[in-house]
Each structure stands twice: as C-alpha cells, then as structure tokens.
Amino acid sequence: MSRCRSPRSARTTVLAALAVAVMAAACGGGDQPTDPGTTRPDTLDVFTPGNVFSPTSSEIRVGSSIRFRISESPDGRGHNVLFTGGVPGAPANVPVVKDTSVLRTFTRTGTFPYSCTVHPGMDGDVIVR
Ligand SMILES: [Cu+2]
C-alpha cells in the first residue's frame, strides 16, 4: 500500500495538463474580440449657446447621430434646424423648439448644411464619413 504515485504516473499527469493548457491557448487565447469602439455609431451633441450652433461643424461616421440640445434663445423664441442645400439623405428638419433635445441620425455620407431660420446667420453643418 503505497501513499505516493509512481514517478511515471506523475509525469503523465503533468504532460496531460500541459497539453490541455497548450490546446486552450491555441483555441481560445488568440481570439480577441473586435473593438466595438471602432465600429459603433455614436452621438455628438450640438448646443445653442446664444444665437449660434456649437460646434458649428460636426464630423461623424455614417449611422451616427447628432443630438441638437436647443436652449431658449436670448430673444426667447427658441431655434429650429433646417437642413439646406437639398443634400440627399438629410434627416428631417427640427421645428422651432426651446429647452429640448432632438436626435437626428445620418444614414448617408455627405456634408449636410443647416440653418436656424429664426436667427439669420445661425448656421452649421454635419460631415458624415
Ligand atoms: Cu436660432
């Protein structure tokens, strides 16, 4: 009745464990998930601090969105967002609102200029790549 395993049996166990470790590394260790940050659409904010859009120009990837965070204008009338230039794929215009966030998603590439018609000269654009 021996309490110890034979040396041969111990060596076999170590080799088997090494084989399992090598196989696990070969099968699963090399598979890194793709970085979702490089492909995930995102959302950028455009603010209205006074009678300007800020930032005036936003660059996003196709499928991403702009969140127009429209505050009350200094004259109390609010702002709208009219996409100008007839660019194909422009999202729906935003009516005159204040103290509201409105999301618009861009599904086509291009440069989409927009204006607030309440305040002449209050312009911006979205560049979708
Ligand atoms: Cu305005």
Topology overview:
Elements: H1 7-29, E1 43-47, E2 57-60, E3 65-70, E4 79-83, E5 94-97, E6 100-105, E7 110-116, E8 122-128
Parallel strand pairs: 1-3, 2-8
Antiparallel strand pairs: 3-6, 4-5, 4-7, 7-8
The structure holds copper (II) ion (CU).
Residues 51, 73, 79, 116, 118-119, 122 line the site of copper (II) ion (CU).
Mean pLDDT: 82
The hetero compounds bound to this protein are: copper (II) ion
What would CATH call the architecture of the domain at 40-128?
Sandwich
Given the C-alpha coordinates, what overall shape results? globular
Fill in the CATH topology of the domain at 40-128: Immunoglobulin-like
Give the termini distance in whole angstroms.
76 Å
Q: Helical percent range?
A: 10-25%
Order of helices and strands: HEEEEEEEE
Beta-strand portion reads 25-35%
Instruction: Report on the biggest sheet.
Output: 5 strands, mixed
Give me the CATH superfamily of the domain at 40-128. Answer: Cupredoxins -  blue copper proteins
Radius of gyration: 29 Å
**Alpha-beta classification:** alpha/beta
Strand arrangement, major sheet: 2-8-7-4-5
* Total number of beta strands: 8
CATH class designation of the domain at 40-128: Mainly Beta
Which stretches are poorly predicted, pLDDT < 50 over at least 5 residues? 12-34
